Amino acid sequence: MPHPLRIAHCSDLHLDGDGYSPNNQSPSVLFEKTLQQIKKSDPHLLLIAGDLFDSNRADDNIVLWAMRALESLPFKVFVIPGNHDCMQPNGVFERHDFNTIENVVMLANPNGEIVWAEDHGVAIWGKAMVSHTPEYRPLSNCPARPEGCDWYLGMGHGLFVGNEKDSERSSPITLQEVEESPCDYVALGHHHAAMEIVTDIKKAAYSGSPTDDIGKGHTFALVKLIKGLAPVLDILTLE
Question: If we measure between CA atoms, which residue out of 154, 182, 176 comes closest to residue 163?
């Protein structure tokens, strides 16, 4: 039986943005605090589910600083673009190749791709957003569970709409898509307030934003996966 898996999950950091925090803490300061607190939790890996940067015009010095911060972490980091930092010509992830960082994997394929954290028997699937439109479906066409993985994780950045009839919103995610996902856990981004997507077996959540205090405050998620049990999800507030 595979060992339990500990996952840290955050999104919507909006580095180089004006900030959403009413106490005027910059996103960069809150990003540092987030990484420090995540390190104390000793996860096996970190999922960043979009909007690491506030825009594709993010200052190159901020981008390089963020790359160094991720490189310093003692675990693997998996990143997807969001609507603010989507894959665009001369966008932040085209100017800077995050896949040159030894412990970072950027999922950059608009059609979706599966990458691996082989040390932990983990397969991760996600898409690179190109355009934030109703036609873009963050969780559509997720492949079946790969052979040989102990754990299968999904990543998506978009708006939870509940029902298909509401899918005219940009980057919609429906309850049916969550229920039908073959993944053990789906890490979502876009909602700045943390939110669980509850099914018979809870397996998807928005971590909330560590740089916005809407909802429960500056938040990120810790998830524990144990074979045969529903994911154990904790939404943590920055100390």
Answer: 176
* pLDDT tens digit sequence for 12-71: 999 999 766 656 678 999 999 999 999 999 999 999 999 999 999 999 999 999 999 999
Retrieve residue 87's tokens. 């894959």
Task: Kindly provide the b/e burial profile for residues 180-205, where b requires at least 16 CB atoms within 10 angstroms of the residue's own CB.
Answer: ebebbbbbbbbbbbbbebeeeebbbb
pTM of the entire predicted model: 0.95
Question: Which pair of structure tokens corresponds to residue 10?
Answer: 């955050």
Helices (H) and strands (E) in the chain, counts: 4, 14
- CATH of residue 175's domain is 3.60.21.10
For 233, the enclosing helix (H) or strand (E) is strand 232-237
Compute the distance between CA of residue 207 and CA of residue 192 in angstroms, rounded to an integer: 8
CA neighbor of 44 nearest in space, from 1, 2, 75: 75
The residue whose two tokens read 């969550």 is 178
Measured from the Cβ of residue 75, the count of other Cβ atoms closer than 10 Å reads: 18
- What does the DSSP 8-state code read for residue 144? P
Q: Which domain holds residue 139?
A: 5-237
Query: To which residue do tokens 């009839």 refer?
Result: 165
Domain count, the chain: 1
Calpha distance 184→61 (Å, rounded): 37
